[in-house]
Amino acid sequence: MTERQDENEENGGMKRKLYEKELRKLQVELCHLQDWVKDKGLKAIIVFEGRDAAGKGGTIKALTERVSPRVFRVVALPAPSDRERTQLYIQRYIERFPAAGEIVIFDRSWYNRAGVEHVMGFVDEQNYQSFLKLCPEIEMHIINAGITLIKVWLEVGMKEQERRFAAPRVDDPLRQWKLSPMDVESYTRWYNYSRAATPC
Q1: Per the CB 3.0–4.6 Å rule, which of 37, 104, 176, 179 could disulfide with 42?
Q2: In Å, how far are 59, 107, 163, 166 from 142, measured between CA atoms?
Q3: For helices 16-40 and 56-64, what crossing angle results, to 10°?
Q4: Is this prediction's pTM over 0.85?
Q5: Residue 56 half-sphere exposure, CB side, CA atoms within 13 Å?
């Protein structure tokens, strides 16, 4: 058992064996869901947002490790290219939306405009306010087009985020990619992120 798992159990968390048993049950249900989505030609989007180190990647991995990538597609977009910066803001997300029989999971989404971009000063106030006004209307069009839209926000406390940013990510070459300069900067703007999350 890892040091992290020991600590989790000491703090009243679920024991590893029980966690894996319950996770397997849920993954079986996801396989049934997958068959249903394919059979009925349904479309769904699951948007994962949250603080850095809140567990988005681990949650998405648990969701997708037993299902078909032909049905469950994970989209984690990099920073926009020069060309994409001149497009309608949500355009590069829309082109990755699901067709019939697909579920698309966004590891961060168009909400970057209200979160990361706004807090880090990458978007001006006019475009930020425009996003807050237009986003609900666009999402209503998404729903009216027959796409099920599920939004998940994952939270982590300030002390726990600091702990997760600490040594293992810095020292472990297999995990260094998880800690970017943007992650470090986001930690220094904790309260700005708290305020930015409210309109979302």
Answers
A1: 37
A2: 24, 18, 38, 39
A3: 60
A4: no
A5: 23
